[in-house]
Amino acid sequence: MRSAEKFSNLRSIKELLIKGVDRDIKMKEKKRAVDFTTELTNKSLAEEITKLLQQKTSRNTCCHFKQPLQKIVPSNSTPTLFLTLINGTFLLMFLFVYPYSRNYSWIPPMISLYLLANIFFAVAMTRDPGFIKADSSASFLKLVETFDPNVLCPSCEIVCTSDSRHCYICDRCVS
Known about the structure:
Blueprint: H1 11-19, H2 43-54, H3 77-96, H4 107-126, H5 140-146, E1 152-153, E2 158-159
Antiparallel strand pairs: 1-2
């Protein structure tokens, strides 16, 4: 917070909130991060930071339409909601649409596609979709010895190519 005016935007503060930093942690002076905004000379920046830090975190980790400024942990709530909705829809269709159909030849392919979709969903869920795991065979220290330290992102611990756009913290990685 003390050096927030040196940054061109609030990406680094947002990234820290997304990584799970505690908004209410107190410093040695018994001040929280939001208390340091009063020391900033740019009042519009201070107001923006205050809004970010006082924003309530969501308890429901499923169905985010916008990236929440909090750490997201793997949860079973989203797959459970998906399965409830998809199975409920299929059940309602089976109860209210299929009985009134005159041509029953399309029902077996529809049921087989439904079952196939559920199998693919189960396979995808067992493979941890969306979570990138670090390569345990190469440590960050070995990367520093192998590559130029200026092309390594200390936050992500990966090699930044000239066209990479993965990191909002270090400007070296964002081209």
